[in-house]
Amino acid sequence: MTFSHFSAVLLFSLFTSVVFGITQRAEPKMMIRFGAYCFVLFVGAVIIASWVMYGIKH
Amino acid sequence: MATDAQQVAQRIPGEKSSLPAMVLIAGWLIPGLGHLILGKWIRALLLFVSIVSMFAIGLAMQGKIYSPSTGDILDILGFAGQLGLGLLCGLAHAFGWGAASSVNTLADYGTKFLVVGGLLNYIAAVDAHSLANGRKAS
After folding, report:
1. Is this complex's ipTM strictly greater than 0.85?
2. Which of B41, B17, B18, B21 shows the shortest CA–CA distance to B29?
3. B122 CA to chain A: closest CA distance, Å?
4. Cα maximum dimension of chain B
5. pLDDT digits (tens, 9 = 90+) for B20-70
6. pTM for the structure as a whole
7. In a mutagenesis test of the B interface, which of A6, A14, A23 is the best target, namely the one with the most B β-carbons within 10 Å?
């Protein structure tokens, strides 16, 4: 099975955020909020790091 | 009438019971089983799908299954992480799933999926243990 690097990042972020949300918060509403927060941080950090690496190379 | 969650939360911390140890081991062996035993089936299903998907994607990307007997400290650490997958790790070793080494970048990503899947399952099993002994409210 072939994934692009970005789709691999999205899948990793999704599944990891689900587990973090469930295990790190007690209330369902807070679980969803924390899971979404983790997902945005994961993906956002990757996008920023990608642009930084692009900037270093060019 | 108290719900299952309230009954679990009202359990006295430190009280002698085999339930916390049982859900800890069950949650480690099969992702989400600890939460299922506690009646939290939606969380159990989400944990099961997430961790088994991490495992399946890791294998599909030709991730490496670590062996503890190579003598390399990094291999031992990788094995400790993947051991968190419980029975899935045992199945991978029994049937020879996964690659012996990471041959390209995506395979290296696959290895990370396998290790992180195991580490997430450790967290999920400990969460079930905390729910069972009352340390976590709900």
Report:
1. yes
2. B21
3. 11
4. 58
5. 999 999 999 999 999 999 999 999 999 999 999 999 999 999 999 998 888
6. 0.88
7. A23
